[in-house]
Design goal:
285 residues; alpha/beta; Rossmann fold; two-stranded antiparallel ribbon; 8 helices; 13 strands; globular
């Protein structure tokens, strides 16, 4: 079994992660050109990757960070002390702010609520505090409905049985079929070198506060968003040839959206296994 050494983002302690044989040759950084699209992938901590990026080089950050609710990721411990979790993300997003261009946007996807020690916690205020504490200005909030339309949304809800007390007012639960996308910006005025390629229909669809996009699962990762989600964000907030960063890239769905929309992709991920899956997708292009 191969070993990959990395550094714990909070305590600076070295950890050894045993890897599957198929990822023993994963390099620390992969840089590739596919047509006119630049791909830059870093296997390591987002904080370390931030040090390698040029200031004011990124036009948009799109990501879904760990939620700190016990998701079984490959090597990441998703059960930090919650205060330490917030402190960690504030540090990450503070470091990344200097990498954004003036007026650049950041889009964070997360669930409506999570369970911590059998208690439910709404995450909207948590990520609002994380982003404002990192120096960003909140500008919008989008509700992602995991279906093509309202009719399908009812069907999605019907597949869940987590309703609590059945047909009783004692303790019913709302079955979540939505997540949030919180949009914030770096201070300053955004300048464009290219004309937007978004169509009228795409613009009208993207500029309402509810987005109907079916969810997708991936056997190689426990918490992915479909490529269509970052694709819509990317087309709304960037133009062709601009740079998009996903500091928690997982198996590379933001990368796929960048390839489709002809934006340059920059991403980091601590799991060599997830990087391996992303590179498999990359090799299909």
């Amino acid at each position: 079994m191969a070993k990959w050494n990395t550094v714990n983002s909070l305590k600076g302690e070295k950890r050894d992660f045993s890897l599957n044989n198929n990822v023993e040759n994963i390099p620390n950084r992969v840089q590739k050109k596919i047509g006119n699209v630049t791909i830059d992938i870093f296997c390591g901590l987002a904080e370390e990757y931030a040090k390698l990026l040029e200031n004011e080089s990124i036009h948009l950050i799109v990501t879904s960070p760990p939620y700190n609710c016990g998701v079984k990721y490959d090597i990441y411990n998703d059960k930090m002390d919650f205060a330490e979790y917030k402190k960690w993300l504030i540090n990450v997003f503070s470091l990344l702010k200097s990498k954004l261009v003036s007026g650049g946007k950041i889009a964070i996807n997360f669930p409506t609520l999570i369970r911590i020690e059998n208690k439910r916690k709404i995450l909207l205020s948590v990520f609002e505090d994380i982003l404002t504490s990192s120096g960003y200005d909140i500008i919008d909030c989008i509700v992602w409905i995991k279906a093509r339309d309202e009719k399908e949304a009812l069907g999605v809800a019907g597949r869940s049985t987590g309703w609590g007390s059945w047909m009783s007012p004692t303790s019913p639960y709302i079955r979540p079929i939505t997540e949030f996308i919180l949009i914030a910006k770096k201070d300053g005025k955004r300048t464009l070198k290219n004309k937007s390629d978004i169509t009228k229909e795409e613009f009208l669809t993207a500029t309402v506060s509810s987005w109907f996009i079916p969810s997708k699962s991936d056997p190689s990762h426990p918490a992915v968003f479909p490529p269509e989600l970052p694709e819509r964000i990317i087309k709304l907030y960037t133009t062709v040839g601009e740079n998009v960063l996903d500091p928690f890239m997982g198996v590379g769905n933001t990368m796929l959206a960048c390839l489709k929309t002809k934006r340059n992709f920059f991403g980091s991920e601590i799991s060599p296994n997830y990087i391996s899956k992303a590179l498999e997708k990359l090799n299909e292009f």
